[in-house]
Amino acid sequence: MMQADLPRAMVTERPELELSHVDVFYGKVQILFDLSIRAYAGQIVAVIGANGAGKSTTLNLIVGRLKAGAGRVEFAGQDIGGLSVEQIVASGIACVPQRRRIFSTLSVKENLEVGAYVRRRDKGAISATLDEIYELFPVLKRKAGEMGGVLSGGEQQMLAIARGLMAGPRILLLDEPSMGLSPKLTTEMFLDIRRIARAGRTVVIVEQNAFAALSVADQGYVLEGGRIALEGSAAQLLHDDHVRDAYLGA
To answer: Which of 75, 93, 131, 223 is the most exposed place for a label (fewest CB within 10 A)?
Structure first.
């Protein structure tokens, strides 16, 4: 995958999403340490690291499945640390989990309708988003009546991302979106992510596939042992010796 020629995001004074000096514990075991991450409107932010580095924990914190033991999580300048998952999703943050987790016995269209649950009363917005998704992923329109379980792995990943978009988020969180995909499908999927960001959404990706994620990202963070080891523009990290040695196989 070639590095994307993305225009740099217009950085405003206030990040759209900001984690400030966050600690997270599972019971008495600390998982995240003094974590600070910022994502500005329209950016793609990649959080890379090995398995067990704390990447999925970071997303679970943002979306409200975990609570911070210290620090703050802010969305559009507001502290969201005390909100429920449903409140956070309704406010404009959606998370696409690992391994897709689509409903295999529901049709493609029914899977998408489930994703729109938090704004189920706004039929006009749901219809408009569905049209947008069918334009972004034409294969989902062609297969709208087919069961989710018969889709290919790449199509299921498209469906999982599309289901997240049905909530109408300003920020889309993606947890290991390349997992289980071939190199060709991974490339295609990250191009889809680039189109989603260009349509005006902020995207935060956590990935073990560092090259793929940094190739489309604006900003990157390297997470090691629950701590930020490096941060910078995605282009800088792609050429950093530590990142190349540890994550890019170079």
So the answer is: 131
Q: Furthest-apart CA pair in the chain: how many Å?
A: 51
Output the pTM of the full model. 0.89
And the tokens for 213? 């994620």
Domains and CATH numbers, the chain: 17-92+169-247 (3.40.50.300), 105-167 (no CATH)
CA distances from 107 to 98, 104, 155, 217 (A): 20, 8, 13, 32
The per-residue pLDDT for range 78-101, each reduced to its tens digit, is 999 999 998 999 899 999 988 778
Instruction: For residue 13, give both structure tokens.
Output: 């004074």
Work out the number of other CB atoms within 10 angstroms of the CB of residue 9.
Answer: 18
Condensed to tens digits (0 to 9), the pLDDT of residues 34-49 reads 999 999 999 999 999 9
3-state DSSP assignment of residue 79: strand
Q: How far is CA 237 from CA 40, 47, 88, 107, 220, in A?
A: 18, 11, 31, 41, 7
Is-contact 192 158, C-beta < 8 A? yes
